[in-house]
Structure formats: C-alpha cells, structure tokens
Design a protein that fits this description.
Elements: H1 3-22, H2 24-37, H3 51-71, H4 77-93, H5 99-112, E1 118-122, H6 129-132, E2 142-149, H7 157-179, E3 192-193, E4 196-201, E5 205-212, E6 215-223, E7 227-236, H8 239-266
Antiparallel strand pairs: 1-2, 2-7, 3-4, 4-5, 5-6, 6-7
Length: 268
C-alpha cells in the first residue's frame, strides 16, 4: 500500500467521524427502530430520499475509501485520476465531508506517478530484445517487464529472487500460483526458488520455470547497478491458458511493483 493509500484510510476514518456527528440524530433513529423491531427493521431502512438516504450515502463512502486506500499502489495513475475526480464531485455534492482531502490525495497520487521509480512494459513487441533473450520460451504468448530503479548493492539476482518470492511473497504467493495450476516443488531446495525450478542463470540474472497443464511460465530476475527487474513470460499450451492467465495477468501487473519495492526494503 502506498503512502497516499494510508492517508486515504485516515481520511476515511475522519469522514466516518464527521458523518456520525452530522447525522447523529438519523443514526440514533435507525438504532431505535432496530431496537424496537429487531434486525428485520433494517429491511427498507434507507428510503429513496430524505435524511436517511443522505446519511446512508454519506457514511457508506467511508468503507469504500478505506478499501480503495488498501489497493492504491504507487504509480497507479488511473486510480489516482479516478480518486481525484471522485473527490471533486464529492466536494460539490457533499462539501461537509472529507472530499477535498480525497481530491488532493488523488491528485498527489497521479502527479507522483510521473516520477515513479517503476517502469512497466507489457507485450512481446514492447519488451527490449535483450530482455526477451533471457527467456527460454521460443515464442511466449504473454510477456511483461517491470523494472525498479534502485541500487542493487552486492546482492546477486538469485538472492533478489529468493527475497522477493520466498520472504516477501511467501506461502501466500505460492498458494496463488498453485491455484492457477502451476506445478511448484513443495520442498525447499537450492535448485528451486519458492518452488520454481532454476533453469538458467547468467552473471546478473536468474530464470525460474514452472509448468502447468495449460502452459509454461518463467520469471526472470535481472539486476544491475541502477535497476532490479522482473520479467514474466507465459506460453499457452492449450486454449485454457489464455482463460487462466488473462484475468490473472492484470492482478500480477498490479502487485509486481509492490513486490519489487518490498524486496528492496527488506534488503536494506
């Protein structure tokens, strides 16, 4: 989660507190109805119009903002832009709440992404030839390359890979990969990283491989003096491959920058 995301969660708490105070009489009325009529009184408690409807839509924004804060990652320009626009609209419609702060956080997140320390390239044609050359898949159907600007220090590529996938990703990441059908070795081994088999390495890179019934996957970690990168290559051996990896790839691209940053922080 980014710093902007944490600030957004603080705003969500403040927004909830403001709403609870402004609409305290309305909330008390709902509580009385539930106390008299039991949980069934909650059915239809929010009318189409009136004070209760206004209070509901004001207060429901708080958990929505909290959840968005958890998912807001550094460099996410789309989420930052949506957040800024939502904040502006909220400021016009409900000026008493925390919407101006939401607009400011969204603008900060969007503008901050212009100087993001992460670069993402998606697509076989968009990834440089030197990066594609590290893959052993003859013609991958999917390829992305995420690079983090950082001082790699004395750590080698395999050490970066182990920190990323074993320490940071951990069992949760491995369960996710297995849930997608990838066959990972369950035993710790010097020939494997988080269950992925090491099937190639160079002076500054290491390549991990895993197979599935629907295809094959590779993770290539590369480091130099100014960057550490993760390249993901996927080949589909059946039509199911696209159905499995297509939706999963969107989540993968979203979490990879955070994975790289967390590994950098863990190695400092």
């Amino acid at each position: 989660m980014s710093r902007a995301g944490r600030l957004l969660q603080v705003v969500a708490l403040g927004h909830a507190a403001i709403g609870a105070w402004i609409y305290r009489d309305v909330v008390a009325g709902v509580a009385r109805d539930v106390r008299v009529g039991g949980p069934r009184a909650l059915v239809g408690v929010v009318p189409d119009r009136g004070d209760r409807a206004t209070a509901f839509w004001f207060l429901v924004a708080a958990p929505a903002l909290w959840t968005l804060g958890r998912s807001l990652t550094p460099g996410d320009r789309v989420a930052g832009g949506v957040l800024a626009a939502t904040g502006v609209a909220g400021s016009v419609l409900m000026p008493a709440g925390g919407w101006p702060a939401v607009a400011a956080i969204g603008a900060w997140s969007t503008l901050g992404s212009a100087t993001s320390d992460v670069t993402t390239l998606v697509g076989v044609e968009d990834v440089p030839a030197a990066v594609r050359a590290r893959s052993a898949l003859p013609g991958p159907d999917y390829l992305d390359h995420v690079s983090l600007a950082t001082d790699a220090g004395a750590w080698g590529a395999e050490e970066w890979a182990r920190v990323m996938f074993e320490r940071v990703g951990g069992e949760g990441a491995q369960r996710t990969w297995r849930g997608l059908g990838l066959q990972l070795d369950p035993r710790p081994s010097p020939d494997h990283v988080a269950g992925w088999r090491i099937d190639g390495r160079g002076d500054d890179w290491v390549r991990l491989h895993a197979g599935a019934d629907w295809g094959r996957g590779e993770l290539v970690v590369h480091r130099d003096r100014g960057h550490v990168s993760l390249t993901t290559a996927i080949s589909y051996d059946s039509p199911a491959g696209r159905a499995v990896w297509g939706p999963a790839s969107a989540v993968h691209r979203r979490v990879t920058p955070g994975l790289l940053r967390a590994a950098r922080d863990a190695m400092r």
